[in-house]
Amino acid sequence: MSEATTLARVIVRQIVEAGITDVVLAPGSRNAPLSIAFYQAEQAGLIQLHVKIDERGAAFFALGLTKVTGRPVPVICTSGTAVANFHPAVLEASHSNAPLLLLTADRPARLRRTGANQTTEQARIFGKAVRYFADVSGPEFPMELPFNSLQSGPVHLNVQFEEPLIGEADTSWLDQIKIAEPKVFTRKAPGTFHTKSTRGLLVIGHDRGGLSQESVEKFANELGWPVIAEDPLSFKDAIAHASVFLTSPKIRSEVKPDTVVIIGRTTLSRSINASIAQARKTIVIDPRMATVDQDRSADQKFVALPNLQVVPADLDWMATWKKLGERAAKVVAELSTWSEETFARDIAAALPAGASLFIASSRPIRDLEGFAKPRQGVEVFANRGLAGIDGNISTALGIASRSEKTFAVLGDLAFLHDVSALSHTGNPDLRLFVIDNNGGGIFSTLPQAGVDGFEKIFGTPHGRDIQAIAKAFGVNASKVSTNAELSQAIAAPVKGFEIVVVQVPSRQENGDYLKSIYAKMESL
């Protein structure tokens, strides 16, 4: 029995016994002991092994799995640059407290800085982005894996494997494994929020700070204040289209809140943050303040939903917010121009109950916030830890691997950024909509619009046929360019993996159209 095989089996056994159900593997040589041990565990029906050829995509796929299962997911790679390719997903996991267990294979420490092949300084390569790190070699075992640390974010085990890497094929080490129920981590005492404010506002960030939708909804009902939700598909009682009508300074001044409670972080709309800034008092509720956001500023801060001692909201205050939402909803419902905004409105309304939706950063998630009518029945996911456009296809594939019917919406640059994920997708039930405006559409709605050199350094037109690219990877692909075609595309049963290219007007046209919608809000 090789030392490497023994070490790998100790690690795998603990992972299986901890109740972990999914593992993601990027193949290589130095991680062969773990690859073989996990394969044996899968053959015994103890775990599901997902193999992805690209380490960056593998880590984002694992991130998607953590989102949809709520459980830790190990992701394994070989030594060298493979480890560095985990870093984007590790940062996203760190800023969203996602439980990624990073198992990076390494050569023995004595080979570092000697010119040995595929050997670099992997120890602490992720710096402060992980909650726990160990540089593991054979003699250090047996040890208990740090599962408790995963409750607040990623954990990194750098595992040194001595040759020989291949041991005997015996599988008796899997006999009599006892799988535990997944741990339920205890949280700190929540504390109490006291207020006599009758003109308060509750703002819910897109990922709710990692708190469950049910717990946040219960808190909102007890609080009894108007609700603005960056994810309107999860909170049916939220004020409709608040991020759109609050672009009006006049309206913001009319609904200036006395107190604002913020759950998670508000990262999407300047209009929402401008409204928050008017408040006399702000309260932040976000578990990440215990890990990565310790310097958040607020009059009161909680890392868990507090108990409430509040008075009833002012009835005129509530009526004003409701009226603004209803009037904005009428404007949005009457929009008839085929655009990114009407796409967001229509797909949000048409998604079937029980569906999962992954929404990419940049314009798509902002359009969903602004133009979707509040509803429930759809489980919504997004990478809002650092809000990057990298790894979005891979994350959506990870979610789809554990969901019955999944939809995803990406911009064209996010699609191209992670196009390598199409090389090894499997066949999940996933319909992926790619909004094609030939470049970085969000910049046409930001202050950069119109600066000298805009197209080259911000617009970045790619000129690529996304439908042809998808088909080159063997993926079914189609195009839509009208609201009627979109309705048909959404209504069709989700069977297997397919891509729908959403052909929309130019970035400049969209920027101008968005401004015209904002102008209509001035007269609400």
Describe the 3D structure.
This protein is of the alpha/beta class. Helices cover 33% and strands 18% of the residues. The protein is built from 18 helices and 19 strands. The chain folds into 3 domains: 3-166, Thiamin diphosphate (ThDP)-binding fold, Pyr/PP domains (Rossmann fold), CATH 3.40.50; 192-328, 3-Layer(aba) Sandwich (Rossmann fold), CATH 3.40.50.1220; 335-521, Thiamin diphosphate (ThDP)-binding fold, Pyr/PP domains (Rossmann fold, 3-Layer(aba) Sandwich), CATH 3.40.50. Residues 188-359 form the Menaquinone biosynthesis protein MenD middle domain. InterPro entries: MenaQ_synth_MenD, MenD_middle, THDP-binding, Thiamin_PyroP_enz_TPP-bd_dom, TPP_enzyme_TPP-bd. Residues 6-121 form the Thiamine pyrophosphate enzyme N-terminal TPP-binding domain. GO terms for molecular function: 2-succinyl-5-enolpyruvyl-6-hydroxy-3-cyclohexene-1-carboxylic-acid synthase activity; metal ion binding; thiamine pyrophosphate binding.
